């Protein structure tokens, strides 16, 4: 068979892509000096894919989008903005980033790490909300650490 006749379609599963992008975005946040937690419930009932606490107390949220369909059917991302100083979309390298809105920051990530392609615009939280979120974040991290400790 001639090489020109050979055609290969790469198919990425959504769960595998979500896991890979989430892992890479969390690793990038850690490289940037943030302490990330995955799957963090917010007071409005939403769940942040990655929430991270920065060295100066800033809070960042990364909303992972596994594909075009995921972005098009999920319009709840605006509901994360009141709970962070910095908001990013995190996508895989093959994601067509031109379909994303310009306002949020943009992270391109895979299972090994990521890069900030567009900086997030800082919109500082009110002090009372920051304190409440920081305390909840610290408690969640501590409880997860305790849960994950071996017993015996």
TrEMBL record:
Q: One Pfam family this chain carries?
A: MmcB-like
InterPro entries reported for this sequence: MmcB-like
Q: What's this protein's name?
A: DNA repair protein MmcB-related protein
**Species per Swiss-Prot/TrEMBL record:** Brevundimonas alba
């Amino acid at each position: 068979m001639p090489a020109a006749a050979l055609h290969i379609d790469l198919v990425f599963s959504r769960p595998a892509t979500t896991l890979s992008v989430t892992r890479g975005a969390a690793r990038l946040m850690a490289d940037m000096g943030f302490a990330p937690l995955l799957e963090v419930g917010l007071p409005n009932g939403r769940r942040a894919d990655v929430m991270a606490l920065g060295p100066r107390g800033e809070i960042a949220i990364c909303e992972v989008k596994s594909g075009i369909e995921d972005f098009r059917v999920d319009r709840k991302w605006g509901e994360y903005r009141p709970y962070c100083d910095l908001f990013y979309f995190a996508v895989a390298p093959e994601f067509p980033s031109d379909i994303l809105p310009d306002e949020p920051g943009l992270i391109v990530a895979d299972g090994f790490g990521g890069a900030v392609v567009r900086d997030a615009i800082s919109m500082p939280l009110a002090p009372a909300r920051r304190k409440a979120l920081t305390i909840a974040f610290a408690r969640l991290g501590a409880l997860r650490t305790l849960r994950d400790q071996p017993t015996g």
